[in-house]
Design goal:
Helix content is about 50%, strand content about 10%. The chain is mostly helical and about 110 residues long. The chain has a domain of about 55 residues: Winged helix-like DNA-binding domain superfamily/Winged helix DNA-binding domain (Arc Repressor Mutant, subunit A, Orthogonal Bundle), CATH 1.10.10.10. A hairpin with a 4-residue loop joins strand 1 and strand 2.
Length: about 110
């Protein structure tokens, strides 16, 4: 039948020390207040592509993909794709490459 055997004295001492250190570490980490980040729903309204703030922010970025634009301006991916198309039509950004599902642009 067996089961767990009794640990030796040195093993029991080591386990006890590990338990004490673990409790001290847990107490220290519990004192820090957890930071909660509020998630805002992504906007479904496309911002004005002629807005100077948006153009300046986009020209600072090295690579423009729908995901990077959506995360930067808190937009949905479909809205970010439309925004990139509109900026490309205006000549603010240039088309670099595309794959099956993604188009890559860079500032002009």
């Amino acid at each position: 039948m067996g089961g767990k055997k009794k640990p030796t004295l040195s093993q029991a001492e080591k386990a006890q020390l590990r338990g004490e250190l673990k409790e001290e570490g847990a107490k220290e980490t519990k004192t820090k207040a957890p930071v909660k980040v509020e998630k805002k729903p992504a906007s479904a309204i496309m911002p004005n592509p002629r807005d100077e703030k948006i153009i300046k922010e986009i020209q600072k970025m090295r690579v423009l993909t729908p995901y990077t634009v959506a995360s930067k301006f808190n937009l949905r991916l479909s809205v970010a794709k439309d925004l990139l198309k509109e900026l490309h039509k205006q000549g603010i950004i240039t088309f670099v490459s595309s794959g099956r599902h993604i188009k890559i642009y860079k500032p002009a």
